[in-house]
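Sample entry (269 residues):
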Amino acid sequence: AAEERFKQINEAYDVLGDPGKKRLYDEQLGMGARHAGRSEGPRRGHARPGVGRDPLDDFGAGMPDGAGMGGIFEKLFGRSERGFTGRARGGDVESEITVSLDEVLRGSVRTVTETRTDPTTGAEQRSTFQVRIPPGVREGQMIRVPGHGEPGIGGQAGDLYLRVRCEVHPRFTVRDGDLTTEMVLAPWEAVLGVTLSVPTLDGTVSVKVPPGSRAGQKLRVRGRGLPGAEGARGDLLVSLRVDVPGEVDAEERALWEQLAARSRFRPRD
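Predicted structure, serialized as tokens:
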């Protein structure tokens, strides 16, 4: 019986918390408003639970006013045993926010302007508020902004949830907390080795490329990636690419021909 009563209460709260359904309720359609779109329509005068009557009338039956579960329900949901008191929390709203990798690294406070349309008048309403972007935030993570959801009915507004999208960076790609960047080598740098100055999100680092490095090889720089939830940073991966000159003059060509004749390297053997 208690389970059935709770089902009835949930149905009543769904109807009375919706302005349109509440209007029908106030016009004495009662809980039948929930079924107004069905072919049979509401049937007033029947004692069927949840139709044509307020199921909350039964919930506190036999108990003193304000006592028992009816009184508890009023405290929790802003509704008395005899009906809705006009207080309901607003619904939550979900949107998106795009953040840069610098914001992921350091965090930021973003000023956001929101535009909404008043459902009653059709007029646009604007509000400006601040959103804190925590360091280490990740793609798909939700940032909660209290009180900026749908307005309540005599109660507090719901919350705004912003789903994080990471801005595409021209140099770095992201995988979890690691960053990857590409550096191009000349053929002789790959053969002889070289020390590169590699950019990161917070300055440059020197990376030693060992002799005999190959295209596609990745060198790891510890602690130069993005911070995690506990503050520890991921790594920077330097992906090597070997490029060749498109044009050479006569002297360069002669040198390449000497190298081809002298070298014992046979890539297809």
